[in-house]
Amino acid sequence: MSAPAAVGGGAAGGRRAAGGRVDGLPVADGRRVRRAMAGLLSAEARAVTGMVGLAALAAAAGLAPPRLLGQIVDAVAAEGAAAVAGVDRLALGIVAATAAQILLTRWTLLVAHRFGERTAARVREQFLDRALGLTPATIERVPAGDLAARGTGDVGAVAATLRDAVPEVFVAATQAVFLLGAVLLVAPVLGAAGLLSLGAAAIAVRWYLRRARAAYLEEGAAGSALADELAATVAGARTVEALGLQGRRLAGGRVAVDRVRRARLRTLFLRSVLFPLVDVSYVLPVVAVLLLGGALHRHAELSLGAVTACALYLRQLAAPLDIILVWMERLQASGAAYARVEGLAAVPPAPAPGTAAPAGDRIEMTGVWYAYDGGPDVLRGVDLTVRPGERLAVVGVSGAGKSTLVRLLAGVDRPRAGTVTVGGVPVADLPPGLLRRQLVLVTQEHHVFRDSLRDNLRLAAPRATDTHLRAALATVGVNWLDELPAGLDTDLGRHPLDGARAQQVALARVVLANPHTVLLDEATALLDPRTARGAERALAAVLRERTVVVVAHRLQTARDADRVAVLDAGRVVELGSHDELVAAGGTYAALWRSWHGDGAR
Ligand SMILES: Nc1ncnc2c1ncn2[C@@H]1O[C@H](COP(=O)(O)OP(=O)(O)OP(=O)(O)O)[C@@H](O)[C@H]1O
Description:
A hairpin with a 2-residue loop joins strand 11 (563-568) and strand 12 (571-576). Helix content is 62%, strand content 10%. The longest helix is centred in the middle third of the chain and has 53 residues, at 246-298. By secondary structure, the protein is α/β, with parallel strands linked by helices. The N and C termini lie far apart (84 Å). Helix 2 (45-79) runs antiparallel to helix 3 (84-133), helix 5 (144-186) runs antiparallel to helix 10 (304-342) and helix 14 (466-475) packs across helix 15 (499-513). This is ATP-binding cassette subfamily C protein.
């Protein structure tokens, strides 16, 4: 017996790590997996009925040859050479039944393979739909490698199993049931003896199954952790190099590789115990039937033909059982993979966007509480109104909740309690197209897709003409369009932009989206001073005549704002103009004095 390759990929997921971050996506429990499988079967009810019917016919045809052979034995034993004519007829029957079995089995497999292909496609589509339905907040919070490992390794394993293992196992299982049924019908005593001696195989399989799910889940989790570790190292390669973190990353990589090795050794151990035990237990039923059948025949309680037929049935049983056991390991591994694929269904879907259109530009936070993934509250009862046209700076020490506050204003996250509305409509309920005409969040993370410059810009305004696109680029100071090999058609995957140009593209998108409010969070914080000056100029052009909420890292920004909101441990503790707050002599005044020297205004 040969074991198919073990299937890797994915984390057991759903655990919480320190800081309240979700360490991986959830894994579906046994009930959810069974329900999902039933759903897949009922979607293919006709094919399943056809498979069952054909497999039953094939298995029934397979029962004839041993029975006919038994009759030949009986005929020869009773009549000797005189039985020749009858034997010929019976032999012809054996040939016909065998041919029928082969043809019907091929037909069943064809139907089953087609069923497997269609179902595999369905699983892929479901996964893709669910992955696309995840909220940005969920995607941000799960390890990058986990979703990728599920979408590739796990979905691939499930699809391969549906295509290869399921048809083979289905046909083999039907055959096994028919063979056992036949023995029980021909000689119930021999059937019972055969069943009992198959108990050894059952014990070995039970031992294996008890351990296999956890072992394969761990193997998947270890694969995901390794993918994650590698992805993090590659994504942060420059930082790793700059800070001399190679040693630490290597050590992390070694731990992840070691975990994969240990997980694989564990599943290998399980297989290497199971298979030899099972091989031995195939022989036991035949031995039992021959011994018991021989004794019964001697006491004239059973014909020689019946003993022969039963021994042959049980001997034949080894083939389907072997197929089932070879694939069982794959089924087990894919069961774990499917649990991880179905785990996506347990993630709460993004709520359907509402239909109400905002009436006006006023943004209001009322009684807003927010916590990351059940962690401690990061915003605690925030009330804040952003007046149309104003520039509002948000200041506070690191960890006060400034970034969280603008993420909620931008509709990226929903408050745990309270409301965040624009023009009276909850921002998180706005469909993306409408939302980006109201508010746009600009951070230091901006993504340029491997696509043309035109399509990269049109993400913000799908119907914008080239004239609009060029005007938007000009607004943010782009003077390098002509340097690109194909202007707006340039493929930015093949001709990547540097950080400063990518930032300009991101800002041009804001111009195209034309929101009434821009939220800024560290938009230029990571740029070098020369690039940052250019970006600041571009930003100033983007912000003109818009409402602006800016997370102010330099108090200079706060001084230039119309109003300043001071956040402290998730609460707005002061709100007013720079001058008012300095005069009030509170937290902001202290910050300002320490930053600017005593007596400053
Ligand atoms: N994704 C996250 N998951 C869990 N906790 C988070 C997450 N992001 C932020 N936090 C926590 O929420 C709190 C507020 O963080 P936030 O980033 O909003 O503060 P901040 O005032 O913007 O800080 P900084 O100026 O350092 O960016 C912090 O305690 C932080 O550790």
